What we know:
Keywords: ATP-binding, Hydrolase, Nucleotide-binding
InterPro entries: Helicase_ATP-bd (IPR014001), Helicase_C-like (IPR001650), P-loop_NTPase (IPR027417), SNF2-like_sf (IPR038718), SNF2/RAD54-like_C (IPR049730), SNF2_N (IPR000330), SNF2_RAD54_helicase_TF (IPR050628)
Order of helices and strands: EEHEHEHHHHEHHHHHHHHEHEHEHEHEHH
CATH class of the largest domain: Alpha Beta
GO molecular function, one term: ATP-dependent activity, acting on DNA
Protein name: Transcription termination factor 2 (SNF2 family domain-containing protein)
Organism: Colletotrichum tofieldiae
Amino acid sequence: MRSLVFHGSKRHRFVDSLPKYDVVLTTYDTLRSDWMSNGPLCNFTWARVILDEAHKIRNCSTKIFHAASALRAQFRWCLTGTPIQNSLDDFGSLLAFIRVPPFTSREQFRFWITSPIMLNQQWDMQTLRKLVSATCLRRTKLHLNTVLNLPKKTEHIEVVDLTPEERYLYDFFMKRSYLLAHSESKTPQEISERQVAHPKKRQKKAAPNTNQLTTGSKSGQNPVVLISILRLICDHGEALLPPIALKAWQYRDPGEITWDFLQTTVEQDMNNVSNGKEAERATELQDAHTLGKASKGGANGGCITQERPVQPTYPRISTGEDHSPTKTRRHNLGQEFSPSSKVSAVLRNVLRTLRKGDSYDSHSAPVKSVIFSSWTGMLDLISSALIPHLSSYNLTCARMDGRCDLQQRHNAIKKFEEDDRCVVFLATVGATGEGINLTVASEVHIVEPLWNPMAEVQAIDRVHRIGQTRDVKVMKYYVKDSIEEKMRSIHQVLPGKENEARYQTDHWESKTEQRWNKMLEFLK
Length: 524
């Protein structure tokens, strides 16, 4: 069987020889680019098109969805561990791709499935169940446990108490966030009405739509942005805050915090994480890494997968431009640097294994840990506190985030896999949450709750998957009496989103209003 990796700037030289290959591997970004330029992938008739990590096309308004749908093929397959992440429409997009009649468009899927369920018509849940049964071949870990023989996975919750100083800082911004959010608007409808009355302001501030409620778009006044500020404080106090927020804190003047400040200084940074732009930036590199392993026979069969010195390049804390999504405030880290309560909790658990002498066990290999965070700036701060401890044990760490190029990603993974002295892997969820195999580790640390619990599941599955030989321990951290505690309450509902309760709402408008009001409740 002949295979071709159709990827990179030199891929066009293989255009004429595509029919000679039995299997062609490519990335979603390459496919999108090819579709936009009317390239060969969309002009060739394939026997079979298989989408790995098929939830990438869950939004049917994206170019990636349209590019995938434009492929001509006799058979179409979707492989994904999370067919539904944000809404039932995600599943509808997959059906549209594989062209299951009559669900070949979002409108048809909503007419036959989504709308009746939202109208609380119980019998339509039976229709959905039959549809899932007819179109999906489910192979979950639970169903295949006897075949996969995966080790046990245990999850632990680490509740973090802020110091009095950290609590004072948090309460300062919490109070201002509450006042700002509730004084500006109560609902999306009120925003819309106010902008109709003031058309001159409409160019800058439009009524938020459903997507904006979760992305923090610049077009609306969004509680998510305020919540993101509080999340940063939970992680590392003032160290992750933008300059104008620090100024407000320095002078204890909450008046410095306005919607204009949020939109011009913070909102785009929050978008980089909430919208997964860092993940988009890394998608092609990530897929290329997986393809490279597959082309060399290094992939794990049918599984959907895939010497840093002690003197570190991390943290990247210096003067000059900061390319991290959170634009972390630069510190001259010295003796005055003190890790936050959250970082201290992470370090305590990571180092406990080392101090107990459990780095090596009967497997004759070290117990390794993966630390996931949403923010590259947080990884900077964790690494600055972690590396001195690792150095004392003659150990090292590796790291991968959206700023790494393909070679850096390859080197980081190789180092972590092959070097017994490299016992910690620092990673952003956006850059490594899927498509990466980290089974060499057996401990996972989720530094902060994520908006999308499915992204959290994907991150953990980098470690707990086929090829894992040890029991996996997962540590999840959240700050007591904070926005993180409230976010965690969402997770207790959302993981069952594929169940009936997720969709039994009166109609879409009421659901949107409920989400908006829930955001505002978080700021109380």
